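Notes to self, Dihydrofolate reductase:
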Amino acid sequence: MRRIVNSTYVTLDGVTSDPQEWSLDYFDATAAEYALDKLRASDALLMGRLTYEGFASAWPERSGDEFSDRMNAMAKHVASTTLTEPAWNNTHVLRGDLAEAVRALKEQDGGDVLMYGYGPVAQQLVGHGLLDELHLWVHPVLRGAGTSTVFAPGVTGRYGRVATRTFDSGVVVLELSEPVAS
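result:
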């Protein structure tokens, strides 16, 4: 059975929006290798429409390195009720009940399914016990405000195991796995 693994950048005050404005100074060679290892363990991406649109506008223009080439080649699954003609290659739109579609995706053979960002799709998966691992890249930054945060009202979940990884840049990755019933 495949695992759904979420990898999300977050500030100390829980903000996840606009990471390009606050995270880039903290992305060093060690963080890049860690991110590449997570991508290598995956053979598909799962995202909501907004994340998809951001990625689809940036990644197809990149190539010539392992990370970009893998991102562009792998299967992409997008949860959306409005996306009708995805332009990025190997994109499949998940329609209907999200939990049902993700359960079916997890039943397929293959590697991990990687998600970037923690928005409505990730929150729904946590609510249904379908998010197997949550990797929060905690950045030593306070934003004060943001349009999205990890700590959305009403979303609850518990994880049974936590590991940490600390980079010289000051970023700490909390690896939460083994979801347990709330």
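- The first helix runs from residue 29 to 40.
- The beta strands are 4-11, 42-48, 75-79, 91-94, 112-116, 133-139, 158-166, 172-180.
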